[in-house]
Design a protein that fits this description.
The protein contains 2 helices and 25 strands. With about 300 residues, it is mainly β. The chain has a single domain (about 5-305), classed as Neuraminidase. The strands form 5 sheets. Strands 15-16-17-18-22-21-20-19 form an 8-stranded mixed β-sheet, with no helix packed on it.
């Protein structure tokens, strides 16, 4: 852990760099309204995009300019779809947001191979990442808990198992308090840690996988409306949806300090709800949440220079 003096020095913000423009990468089918999350299959380069409004998941074959419906709206009782992620074994994980559902599909056939449920309708399963052993870690923005599905859980759950709670956040630095608001959202693994953002406060938190201890990541930036979060190497990208902003930050080796390197704000981001690195580029979903006259078709875009 850095000393207070060293941490203060590390928090100095790097000089600004020019970023942009925002250019379309591919469009989505008419049914995908308010795209929420995206993920790339590391084996094929295909990209999958979820729709919050109806649970649809679309697939964009690598290099194509148009995505196609992969999992139909409302499939398997899922009225909403939030976080999506492809694991290293060719499985597509789809979170059901307020439905409490977690569905796992074969990435080639779209056949559901496992399903979990939190059994709660007052939560909001939001995003997920995979630890070094392949376990999935899932945030809930309304309930102060992080869920975990291990490879053993997955093998033993063909359909409808209880979603295992791994960590209660009550009494930790990431405690949700008593006010219902969007709390932990985007999450990514970084070595032996998880890094996650609170959408309302903009704080970053580090969770140690070994000890399950939670600590605040020191940063000169508050990532208010932080939504998507991805890490590549020792750099992290966060999309701040309603602020139409994408930030790139450097991470210390122990994930205890985040140093902002580039901040890009533009209305052209159209409420970026998720962010990934793809082919050396920064790619976002343009969610347009709450826009009564959205630009259609909805799409996924590349953000240059960041």
């Amino acid at each position: 852990m850095l000393s207070a003096a060293l941490a203060t020095l590390a928090l100095a913000v790097a000089p600004a760099h020019a970023a942009g423009p925002v250019t379309p990468l591919f469009t989505l089918p008419p049914g995908n309204v308010a795209p929420e999350s995206l993920t790339a299959d590391p084996a094929t380069g295909d990209i999958f995009v979820s729709s919050y409004t109806n649970g649809e998941v679309d697939r964009r074959p690598a290099g194509a300019g148009q995505a196609q419906v992969f999992i139909a709206a409302g499939a398997d009782g899922r009225a909403n779809a939030t976080g999506v992620k492809v694991d290293g074994a060719g499985r597509l994980w789809v979170l059901g947001g307020p439905t409490g559902l977690v569905d796992v599909y074969d990435v080639k056939t779209a056949q559901r191979i496992a399903a979990f449920t939190s059994g709660r309708t007052d939560g909001l399963l939001n995003d997920l990442t995979f630890g070094p052993d392949g376990s999935a870690y899932i945030t809930d923005s309304y309930l102060p808990v992080v869920y975990r599905v291990t490879p053993a859980d997955l093998a033993g759950s063909p359909n409808g198992a209880a979603l295992p709670e791994w960590l209660s956040l009550t009494g930790t630095p990431a405690d949700y308090g008593t006010t219902k608001q969007l709390n932990l959202n985007g999450i990514a693994a970084y070595g032996g840690y998880l890094v996650t953002v609170n959408s309302t406060t903009g704080q970053l938190f580090r969770i140690c996988l070994a000890s399950r201890t939670v600590s605040v990541v020191q940063s000169s930036t508050q990532f208010v409306t932080g939504d998507g979060l991805t890490i590549a190497g020792d750099q992290m990208w966060i999309s701040q949806n309603y602020r139409n902003t994408v930030v790139r930050a450097g991470l210390s080796d122990d994930a205890g300090v985040a140093t902002t390197e580039v901040t890009f704000t533009s209305d052209d981001l159209r409420i970026p709800s998720s962010v990934i690195r793809y082919g050396g580029q920064t790619v976002v979903t343009r969610g347009q949440f709450g826009n009564p006259t959205p630009v259609t078709p909805f799409d996924v875009a590349v953000v240059g220079g960041i």
